[in-house]
Specification:
With about 425 residues, this protein is mainly beta. It folds into two domains: about 20-225, Beta Barrel (YmcC-like fold), CATH 2.40.360; about 245-435, no CATH class. Helix content is about 5%, strand content about 50%. It contains three helices and 23 strands. The chain has helices at about 115-120, 335-340, 360-365, and strands at about 20-30, 30-40, 50-55, 70-80, 80-90, 125, 135-140, 145-160, 165-180, 190-195, 200-210, 215-225, 245-250, 255-270, 270-280, 285-295, 300-310, 355, 370-380, 385-400, 405-415, 415-425, 430-435. A twelve-stranded antiparallel beta sheet has the order 6-5-4-3-2-1-12-11-10-9-8-7. The radius of gyration is 26 Å and the shape is elongated.
């Protein structure tokens, strides 16, 4: 069976077609009070995922007092977002603070728009998918001596010279710290970047630290790109450290008394998380842990480990190719949720469908074929409350095992994750999961 993965968005947060152009105008309230235009183009050596943006102040009608700037930045699209891999330019004006411990062989500068965008935020420069509550840490600078913490604070309407009618922009705010540079504290401060889907950064405001409180501002004044509506940003499966969930699990034939399990997100790093589970009450005693990751292809299950004890009897699960001690079991709500194939949820909750891939890692573990599709949003009520949830439905077939085959419908609520799941097994039984709190 061929792969049928969720399609990538037509637009992006940073398009880089060969003919894309941007012109920015930037100033610094202390070190460059002359409005300076820079034209940015896509270098011919760029590829589909690795691309170089060149900038120049030459032939842009700048006054004689404007600083000269010629440089480039190398960026890469990854499954975690946009990453900066390299940069180079002429030296910054002599009046600018030195952003290294020594003035000689200093590879740091803030004398351009793109240098302000990537400062302290190389990997990633922008996390994707960009969802409500997203935060990330990064480093930057010539010697990785600049650290930053960024957060997506939501969307807002913005107007710039290149886009005179209000457009929706994603607002990303970053706290930046540099220590040990001659130019401290100019390398530290708070930077805000407004990203427009289909265009890229349209405005940058950097409030530097220091007694004279310099402010660098850059604005997009022209482009040949057209803004598009950004993708929706609800986080339907939050991987936030400390977040807790408690569920009940029943099956109409095998678990008639509810098994109640609590979950906690106990480790988070680089968009991946470990979620641990333990029994609260009911006929199943268990301890479990699960690994998940959020990337541009959605939320995926990485691994699972469970231990349980119960007098209940369950039907066998496959696949036939696995030994009995290698086969998964439906012990916790997450066992039912991750069963089959990835992703669990596509990026941005996109209305799409995808098939199981054979051969694949998921097929080796579960031996399941089928199709998953996003049905849209629906109001759902569970003991934890009422939610407007994303509905994801899977048709699953595990050859030779009716209990492992059937139709699973999952409801995911913004900032809460899984709130309900109903698995109608081919053996006639029905498993039901509900969020209690």
């Amino acid at each position: 069976m061929a792969a049928d993965t969720p399609p990538a968005p037509v637009a992006s947060w940073l398009p880089h077609a060969a003919d894309s152009t941007w012109t920015y105008q930037w100033t610094d309230s202390v070190y460059n009070t002359t409005p300076t235009k820079e034209k940015v183009t896509v270098d011919k050596k760029s590829t589909a995922t690795s691309f170089t943006l060149d900038w120049t102040t030459q032939d842009q009608g700048n006054p004689d007092a404007a600083p000269v700037g010629i440089g480039d930045v190398v960026l890469q699209e990854t499954n975690r977002g946009i990453v900066t891999t390299d940069w180079q330019s002429n030296q910054p004006p002599a009046a600018f603070p030195v952003l290294c411990a020594s003035a000689t062989q200093c590879g740091n500068s803030l004398a351009s728009t793109w240098y302000n965008v990537i400062w302290g935020s190389r990997s990633p420069t922008l996390v994707e998918p960009l969802l409500a509550g997203t935060q990330w840490a990064s480093t930057g600078g010539f010697q990785n001596d600049v650290t930053s913490t960024s957060k997506y604070v939501g969307t807002e309407q913005i107007t710039v010279a290149a886009l005179p009618s209000p457009v929706t922009a994603a607002k990303v705010q970053t706290q930046i710290t540099q220590a040990g540079a001659l130019g401290d504290p100019y390398g530290s401060g708070i930077r805000t970047v407004w990203w427009v889907y289909g265009v890229g950064p349209v405005k940058v405001a950097f409030q530097h630290a220091g007694t004279n409180a310099p402010q660098t501002t850059s604005e997009l004044v022209s482009t040949n790109l057209t803004p598009t509506a950004p993708p929706p940003d609800p986080d339907y499966f939050p991987l936030t450290k400390g977040k807790t969930f408690t569920y009940s699990l029943t099956n109409s034939k095998y678990v008639k008394k509810a098994s109640v399990t609590s979950f906690v997100v106990d480790q988070v790093a680089n968009g991946s998380a470990r979620i641990s589970a333990k029994s609260v009450s009911g006929p199943i005693k268990l301890a479990a842990a699960y690994g998940f990751t959020l990337r541009t292809d959605g939320v995926s299950s990485l691994w699972a480990a469970t231990q349980s004890a119960t007098r209940l009897k369950f039907p066998a699960l496959g696949p036939k190719t696995a030994s009995k001690d290698e086969r998964r079991h439906f012990i916790t709500p997450y066992d039912l949720m991750i069963y089959g194939f990835n992703p669990i949820i596509p990026p941005y909750g996109a209305p799409t469908s995808w098939n199981a891939v054979v051969p694949s890692r998921d097929y080796t573990i579960f031996g399941v074929t089928g199709t998953t599709k996003v049905l849209g949003t629906q109001k759902v009520t569970v003991p934890a409350g009422k939610f407007n949830a994303l509905v994801v439905q899977s048709t699953l077939t595990q050859d030779g095992f009716k209990y492992g085959s059937g139709t699973r419908t999952s409801w995911f609520a913004p900032n809460r994750g899984l709130v309900k799941l109903v698995f109608r097994h081919a053996d006639g039984s029905v498993s039901t999961v509900k969020l209690l709190r």
